[in-house]
Design goal:
- With 223 residues, this protein is of the alpha+beta class.
- The protein has a single domain, classed as Thaumatin (Sandwich).
- Helix content is 18%, strand content 33%.
- It is built from five helices and 14 strands.
- Strands 2, 3, 5, 6, 7, 8 and 13 form a seven-stranded antiparallel beta sheet that branches. The protein has a five-stranded mixed beta sheet with strand order 4-1-14-9-10.
- The termini are far apart.
Length: 223
C-alpha cells in the first residue's frame, strides 16, 4: 500500500468514525448546580442553565448521571452526596447510588443505538433523555416525578431515593444469581412514576429504546 493510498484509507476511517460518533448535549435546567458524571467522558460542573456537549465515539457503551451537593478542591478531588465516583470530579468509574442514569450502547446490532433511563441505581435528579438530531427518531424517555419526596421510608437516602438492591442487597432485588427475577412493590413504586425507565434489572421490555446509529442525544436535568 502506497503512502497516498494509506492516507486516503485512514481519512476514510476517520470520516466513518466521525459520522457515526454521537454528541450528547447535557443541559442543567435545575435551579441548583449539578456535577455531571460520564463514563466515558469524565465529569463537569454545570451551574443552572449551563450545557456540556460530550462527543462519544462509535460503538461505545456508557452512561451519564447527575451528582449533587459536591465539593472539589483545585485538583478535582472531593466528594458528592449522590452519584459520587471515588471522590473525583472527572469520573473514571460509575457513580455510587442513588443516581438517575442515562445509559447507551452506540452502533450495536443492525447499526442501531440502544438507550435507556435506569432507576436501578435509585434516583436523585429528574431527567429527560431523548434523540436530538433529525432522522425520524423522536421517542424519548422522561422521568420528572417527585420520587425523592415520595420515596418509601426504607429507601430514603440523603439527597435521593435508593433502589432496594442498594439497601437490601438480596437476589430478590438485585437479580444477580440467574433465574427469574420479578417486579416487587418497591420496583412498582418507581415504575408507576416513570413508566419508561428501568425499575429493576430485568425490566427490559418496556424500558429499552433504539435509534439509528449516528443519532445525537439530549440529556436534560430537571426538564
Amino acid at each position: 500500500m502506497t503512502t497516498f493510498t494509506l492516507s486516503i484509507f485512514l481519512l476514510l476511517i476517520f470520516l466513518f468514525r466521525s459520522t457515526n460518533a454521537a454528541v450528547f448535549t447535557i443541559l442543567n435546567n435545575c435551579p441548583y448546580t449539578v456535577w455531571v458524571g460520564a463514563v466515558p467522558g469524565g465529569g463537569q460542573q454545570l451551574n443552572s442553565g449551563q450545557t456540556w456537549a460530550l462527543s462519544v465515539p462509535s460503538s461505545t457503551v456508557g452512561r451519564i448521571w447527575p451528582r449533587t451537593n459536591c465539593n472539589f478542591d483545585g485538583s478535582g478531588r472531593g466528594k458528592c452526596q449522590t452519584g459520587d465516583c471515588n471522590g473525583l470530579l472527572r469520573c473514571q468509574n460509575y457513580g455510587t447510588p442513588p443516581n438517575t442514569l442515562a445509559e447507551y450502547a452506540l452502533n450495536q446490532y443492525n447499526n442501531l443505538d440502544f438507550f435507556d433511563m435506569s432507576l436501578a441505581d435509585g434516583f436523585n435528579v429528574p431527567m429527560e433523555f431523548k434523540p436530538s438530531s433529525s432522522g425520524g427518531c423522536t421517542r424519548g424517555i422522561l422521568c420528572k416525578s417527585d420520587i425523592n419526596g415520595q420515596c418509601p421510608n426504607e429507601l430514603r437516602a440523603p439527597g435521593g431515593c435508593n433502589n432496594p438492591c442498594a439497601v437490601f442487597k438480596t437476589n430478590e432485588y438485585c437479580c444477580v444469581s440467574g433465574g427469574n427475577c420479578s417486579p416487587t412493590d418497591f420496583s412498582r413504586f418507581f415504575k408507576t412514576r416513570c413508566p419508561d425507565a428501568y425499575s429493576y434489572p430485568k425490566d427490559d421490555q418496556t424500558s429499552t429504546f433504539t435509534c439509528p446509529g449516528g443519532t445525537n442525544y439530549s440529556v436534560v436535568l430537571c426538564p
